[in-house]
Design goal:
Helix content: 25-40%
Strand order of the largest sheet: 14-13-12-11-7-10-9-8-15
Number of strands: 15
Order of helices and strands: EHEHHEHEHEHEHEHHHEEEEEEEHHHEH
Radius of gyration: 24 Å
Largest sheet: 9 strands, mixed
Shape: globular
Bound molecules: 6-O-phosphono-beta-D-glucopyranose
Number of helices: 14
Structural class: alpha/beta
Length: 491
Amino acid sequence: MHSNEPLDVATSAVPALDPHVIVLFGATGDLARRKLLPGLMHLTRAGLMPDMRVIGTSFDDFDDDQFRAFARASWDEFGRQPVPEDEWDRFAARLVYINAREGAPGLSQLARDVVEQMGVPVRFLHYLSVPPAAATTVVTTLRDAALVDRARIIMEKPFGVDLATARVLNAAVNEVFPDERVFRIDHFLGKEAAQNILALRFANGLFEPIWNRQHIDHIQIDVPETLSVEGRAGFYEGTGAYRDMVVTHLLQVLAFTAMEPPTALEPAAIGEEKDKVFRSLQPIQPRDVVRGQYDGYLRHEGVDRNSQTETFIALRCEIDNWRWSGVPFFLRTGKNMAEGARIISIAFKEPPRSMFPVGSGVGQFGPDHLTFDLADATRMSLSFYGKRPGTGMRLVKQSLQFSLHEVEEHVDDVLEAYERLIYDAMMGDHTLFASSKGIEKLWEISQQLLDHPPEVYPYPAGSWGPRTPMNELIAPRTWRLPFERKWRGPK
Ligand code: BG6
């Protein structure tokens, strides 16, 4: 579906954005290279970017041209379409670079020059793609550079490593930027499919009546990854799967799945409902958690030889409210696993089966499921029992599947998660961002686990994790992955 034409994502419904100066801290880092710089170009091609300039900054000794070459290389590697040279040149002309060693005075001067050149009133969007320890320094630099007025900031996780550090970080940031101008990014919420959970739940009469403990047996949020932590072991060693994935992405997705209908589809109302889910979450009990570490992890550079950092985690948690009481949520994620997937799977309660003859196969293949695939283009499936054609009553599991790829006219409209979120931050829309209150609450319910982490089981690289403890955790239910059937249609 790739073409040379700019995408026609922009529609007349898109409100005009103020001109922006985007200050990208960590501009030569991995996230900038893979996602942010290509994302800015893609938004531009899609007609969603206002008049803008990008000030890249980091500790690399680059000049403007080297930064532009870096951006070009990142587009060539990670951009999603070929781009005509003249179009690239127009984009590249909007990029400038300053070494972070120049500090607040240098940044302030460059920002003034850029704004003067643009010749219009601008807003600033400061993107902090920096390690957590550097976040407060950057905020101080922004204050000293007088880049706070008409400015918003996007922050990357981890937002602290526990409740105490999260509070300190939030307080330091809020001293300079009020919370309504802070956008804490969780890119899982920017994925089309995550938002589609809201559409599916609240725009249809079909699912909401059964979205509760009367009809749902349990829910799985499962994000195995085939990636190892090679190349980022130094970061990962001090983080582990719980902090890297669960307390951020998986629990944010859980909130979308479990929240009550908001009073309006707008940021404050949605944020409030998400936070209510976090407030109802029961503290995570160490006995409900299985931690694992893939064989070979200890050999990575930067890893302690006796490291107890988990590269795999599976856990059970519960939401103590009227909708969900008694419905377990099983979360699982890990590195170096057999397959990469990101699914939410809702398992429905089984009906009485008394009328079906012995041997008919009813219930034999697990409960009915509604499954969301959080891949960049939405996929969903509903699996249920149906009759196998022929004599007698033999039941088989069948599925209805939907893939956004089947809806040709929408395929090119898909924005990458980061693109969507950068756009929303420029709009000042908090809907898909994590709140400081929510984050603090999640650290609070994590404290027992952080204080008393259970033992770490080894698992073979390329497997599904430490099999016995992980299966015992979910028994008598079973993990939905690996799927018994492949998704149909294009990948
Ligand atoms: C990041 C984690 O936030 O999300 C990584 O730090 C993880 O460890 C990544 O691999 C997964 O995101 P995605 O969008 O590639 O599934």
